[in-house]
Amino acid sequence: MALGEFDLIRKYFTRPTPKAVLGVGDDCALLRPRSGMQWAVSCDMLVEGRHFLSTVRPERLGHKALAVNLSDLAACGATPVAFMLALALPRVDEDFLAGFAQGLFGLADEHGIELVGGDTTAGPLSLCITVFGEVPTGLALRRDGARAGDALWVSHPPGGGIGDARLALEVFRGHLALDGADFEAVRRAMEQPQPRVALGEHLRGVASAAIDLSDGLTGDLGHVLERSRVGATVAVDRLPIGPALARQPRALQRECALAGGDDYELLFTAPPDAADRVRAAAAAAAVGVQCIGRIDAEPGLRLLDDTGRALPRVPRGFDHFAGAAGG
Amino acid sequence: MALGEFDLIRKYFTRPTPKAVLGVGDDCALLRPRSGMQWAVSCDMLVEGRHFLSTVRPERLGHKALAVNLSDLAACGATPVAFMLALALPRVDEDFLAGFAQGLFGLADEHGIELVGGDTTAGPLSLCITVFGEVPTGLALRRDGARAGDALWVSHPPGGGIGDARLALEVFRGHLALDGADFEAVRRAMEQPQPRVALGEHLRGVASAAIDLSDGLTGDLGHVLERSRVGATVAVDRLPIGPALARQPRALQRECALAGGDDYELLFTAPPDAADRVRAAAAAAAVGVQCIGRIDAEPGLRLLDDTGRALPRVPRGFDHFAGAAGG
After folding, report:
1. Calpha distance B52→B64 (Å, rounded)
2. Which of A26, A82, A155, B326 is most buried by a 10 A CB count?
3. Among B124, B212, B227, beta carbon nearest to A124
4. What sign results for the dihedral spanned by CA atoms A238, A239, A244, A245?
5. Which residues of A touch B132 (CB under 8 A)?
6. Above 0.85 for ipTM, yes or no?
7. Domains in chain B and their CATH numbers?
8. Would you call A67 an interface residue with chain B, using a CB distance cutoff of 8 Å?
9. pLDDT in tens, A91-137
């Protein structure tokens, strides 16, 4: 017999919320902000077929749904505190829910955060998570702080790079084939990204601007440039590329790394004399960082290859209505 | 030519956010909690065909989407501060967006709150709003504060009642017909509910427990009874009934008022000596209130008609997976 909505919520999504004043099960959750802290809030909606494929394992979907939201907190240098989950399901599917909850709470526990409320309803599979974080007043990383002369940095997995999620998507789309180990590696990058929360925290007071890579490097960088009213030069051959993508043709490497999307690494700027502090932040967070260019006073984005030649075309970021428009 | 996602967001959903430290357009919004305040947060997801009909005017949908969330804040006695909107749209439809934004911001402006962020994506029409409110520490209305001997109250529109939204739904389902004026009145109740924010604020320190009526009176009352570990007796003939519903057979009146759902009135308890303070709160908020019963030490819910006879069956609240299960 199918469980009702309230039973479902209780069984899979009610857990202790010691940090909240009042957690799941009332009209609102009650949270107690700490003095001296600002609140960072963000929400992302994920729709089946658009943000994830029907073939994804529920554990990984639960992980990713929270990860993409934590990545927004990371980009602000905020420390995650709590989250809310709204879930539309076509039917009550306990196997799905059990797996989803396992992935979701696995990542939540890694970050010591609580599910404090939400909503469950029937509908086409989609989910919306809102995250709450805190950051000391005035120390949030923003998109509008990049200054001409700043160095441009991107984080990456230790021993890995950016663009792997896009490479995996190309395989799912049938555009190319990878051997089993390479496919498993890039598929994991797509389905189980690691939000760079610790790096964001360590970059408070170090980075001048930051954004997370969700729509592709050139598109996301464009947001920073626009908000900061500056331009940038990117050395495309300095982009960190992981082993699987490195075995692909150079044109595909560049497309995946520049316009891929779904990387959830941090793209950030820092004054040129802060390189040691950036590397120390990365070491403390156990992630890699690579300097990939600089911020210019002149507007616009310039891409240079390793011979110093300007690349003619800037791939655009992913637009959730227009589809991928990479070059 | 279709607008891209970022253009869409800018055109309809970017407005000044003077209260936020940082509003729409960064990875997170930054909010500055005031000292002495707790934060109340809630989110609701609305899916086409489940929470609203495809025939609803976009203006009313925009209103309702925010109203149901503000109603959760009202039930906690919280003062709304800000909200986030995640919107999945099957296609870029400017007429829809313009109307939706008009209804949404119309209600937001009534309550002096700001849209501080969100997400827009392609997908089956659904939306998820997260609201943030503040309430002085320790004064939030909760579900778990009802005590034996408390009076049970329900709010209602001046000159109106509860159950109208359910009556409208019965018309949309083809189960009955109403004359034009009655239909317009109950349709407006269904499509454009008024969240009882001012009443919730005035009930701080007066009400012992509160919940908003979203799933039907008996179902929502059940949540209060369960959390407070008490029972209740409801005098069903004291339920406030509006003019359109009053012209229907008594059995239908009771079903709509007891198990209707989508009322967004406040159901609350208060000590028996607080009746004058309850009426003063209602007067200050310009809404009606009706005492409809009492809280009992004995668990369970008892329904009595005006002759003192117990009604044999308690209609259940609405379950978003099981469908309406009213008796």
Report:
1. 9
2. A155
3. B124
4. negative
5. 41
6. no
7. 5-136 (3.30.1330.10), 151-304 (3.90.650.10)
8. no
9. 878 888 899 999 999 999 999 998 988 888 888 889 999 999 999 98
